[in-house]
Amino acid sequence: MDTLIINSHPDFGNPQSFSHRLQELFCQKFTQAFPQSKLTILNLYDTEIPEISKEGLLAVWKKLGTGQELTAQEAKLATQSQSLLAQFKAHKRQAFVSPMHNFNVTARAKSYIDNILVAGETFKYTKDGSVGLMTDDYRVILLEASGSVYSDNGRYTPYEFPALYLRAIYEEFMGFSDFHIIRAEGTSVLGADKVLEKAAKDLDAVFATFYQ
């Protein structure tokens, strides 16, 4: 099954980063399981991602909503945003690669979400609240790298904001069927081999379910 990898690490090509290593684990397993299938990798820090700003998406949304003509730059932003949305909707299996920077997702990850969380496209408003539109068996795996440990119900567990944020966006607001988390956690306090061994086992445990 065609799968989209969304890499939100600023240094996405660094083979020493745990985000990169997590992605490689996923890619290797995918290739072994589906040698004839396509894997699309979107490096957010190697892609022009329109941002919410006065001259950016705010201006585009305002003019599109009122039927005003876009400037050349605004039309370019609109095309880029629509292309990201179309790519997103075309892949029912996705892997979101996210390092944890200061307890949260990267800035480019937030900008990407701003382009795909679109009313009338991936969710809709109703009188009883918003409803997700991505309900046709869309699934996502979060590949999260963090310096501390967050899954032990310890001090840092309440502050695993990337997982909390992305789960809410994907499951609660867009209606994805499944949200899995594979963690390379404790990278600053545990040995690399131990961290990656656990991540590989966790990926093995959910991979078949993710693609069923």
UniProtKB/TrEMBL annotation:
<keyword id="KW-0288">FMN</keyword>
<dbReference type="InterPro" id="IPR023048">
    <property type="entry name" value="NADH:quinone_OxRdtase_FMN_depd"/>
</dbReference>
<keyword id="KW-0560">Oxidoreductase</keyword>
<feature type="domain" description="Flavodoxin-like fold">
    <location>
        <begin position="1"/>
        <end position="205"/>
    </location>
</feature>
<dbReference type="InterPro" id="IPR003680">
    <property type="entry name" value="Flavodoxin_fold"/>
</dbReference>
<keyword id="KW-0520">NAD</keyword>
<dbReference type="Pfam" id="PF02525">
    <property type="entry name" value="Flavodoxin_2"/>
</dbReference>
<comment type="similarity">
    <text>Belongs to the azoreductase type 1 family.</text>
</comment>
<dbReference type="InterPro" id="IPR050104">
    <property type="entry name" value="FMN-dep_NADH:Q_OxRdtase_AzoR1"/>
</dbReference>
<dbReference type="InterPro" id="IPR029039">
    <property type="entry name" value="Flavoprotein-like_sf"/>
</dbReference>
<feature type="binding site">
    <location>
        <begin position="17"/>
        <end position="19"/>
    </location>
    <ligand>
        <name>FMN</name>
    </ligand>
</feature>
<dbReference type="GO" id="GO:0016491">
    <property type="term" value="F:oxidoreductase activity"/>
</dbReference>
<comment type="subunit">
    <text>Homodimer.</text>
</comment>
<protein>
    <recommendedName>
        <fullName>FMN dependent NADH:quinone oxidoreductase</fullName>
        <ecNumber>1.6.5.-</ecNumber>
        <ecNumber>1.7.1.17</ecNumber>
    </recommendedName>
</protein>
<comment type="function">
    <text>Also exhibits azoreductase activity. Catalyzes the reductive cleavage of the azo bond in aromatic azo compounds to the corresponding amines.</text>
</comment>
<comment type="function">
    <text>Quinone reductase that provides resistance to thiol-specific stress caused by electrophilic quinones.</text>
</comment>
<keyword id="KW-0285">Flavoprotein</keyword>
